[in-house]
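Let's do one together. I've listed all components of the complex below, 472 residues spread over two lines.
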Amino acid sequence: MNNKPAQIYLIPCTIAPNTQESVISPRIKQVISAVDYFLVENVRTARRFISSLKLRAVSDLHFEVFNKHTDEQEISKLLSPLRNGQSIGVISEAGCPAIADPGNQIVRWAHRNKVKVTPLVGPSSIILALMASGMNGQNFEFHGYLPIDKILRLKKIQSIENESLITGKTQIFMETPYRNRALAEALLDGCADQTNICFACNLSSSTEEVRTKKVSEWRGQLPDLHKIPTIFLLHA
Amino acid sequence: MNNKPAQIYLIPCTIAPNTQESVISPRIKQVISAVDYFLVENVRTARRFISSLKLRAVSDLHFEVFNKHTDEQEISKLLSPLRNGQSIGVISEAGCPAIADPGNQIVRWAHRNKVKVTPLVGPSSIILALMASGMNGQNFEFHGYLPIDKILRLKKIQSIENESLITGKTQIFMETPYRNRALAEALLDGCADQTNICFACNLSSSTEEVRTKKVSEWRGQLPDLHKIPTIFLLHA
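Okay, and this is what the predicted structure of the assembly comes out as:
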């Protein structure tokens, strides 16, 4: 890769433990073998991911942290290896960088500075959940995290249910795993009996479970979602 | 796989020619090696895709067509091999099945009939485009195809621009490749100077090009998008 101009590779990582041998594409392995400098959301998990691929010694690589606390002025400094012709890999905490994380600031900087950005194919829990939900995949919305405050969360749930009712769009959102149960209960409290809810859990792993039912069918038999990585989908 | 209950595998395929060796994960190869019956959007392209993986003789496999002309009553018949313990692979024309295609009807049938659905990791042009656009990846909407009629299309463009302005959401949409130029021109005509437009072309291929600029910067220098597979993104 040395004779090509330096660029930024957006490198997806696994979303479930010990799945690297099944979900990581040859292209990702090729790029990780060639890049020495990584901007990562979390150094520990990024090192562990690269290490699991058994391609090279992690001790030879350079890692810098980029996360929601990084301000825009630091970005140019973090990307300075590009000026010396060195390509950079961006790896987020789980799945695809710049989706549901602050990585898009790096990409925005690259567009402004005419640096090529190459997104690699890899695990996206949003897409896996939508595929397996059976809900409308031709029109959908992703909301990220819903509000934590109970009243604001209920308001948001009712607004997205209403939006789905009017437009037919699938509504996708997530939660910090230890608050999953509270969100699932809020969905059953706030939504109409006929609204469809999908819980997509442990995606891409051997314990994966994706189930879609009406609110009335979920009542009294909510699955145990506590601390289980889950994507929530709603279709009214 | 013979001692597990029969299930439906949602199998992503390539989105650009000759990329199977770089983007297709080991898990997809494993499933295609084990499944004999496929529901596909287009038999010719599905056979060509499986054939390109060089895993087995395509002549040994059974293909049935499922597309937008298939009515709901036929689905149960098409899925009848499940009742004999045979798993089924679903392959769409490009990328991830049940996203931007009618495959979700198959998945809905599966949920109703308690058949397990396993979505596999693979190329999604929507996710690759969003990653590389530099636009908001925490809140976004996918609209599928915009209306063909000029007046309706302009109305839709202005409504999604307005939606992005109010909510900050990235707006993602697509077009049949021979109408790309008309859509790009309609975007420049219909949107405000400051609105950001991204054209994400030939994703995952060696001719991939993803560029984000303001409407005012695109004016007079639109790239040639004619018949080039493109995802369009807008952020006001």
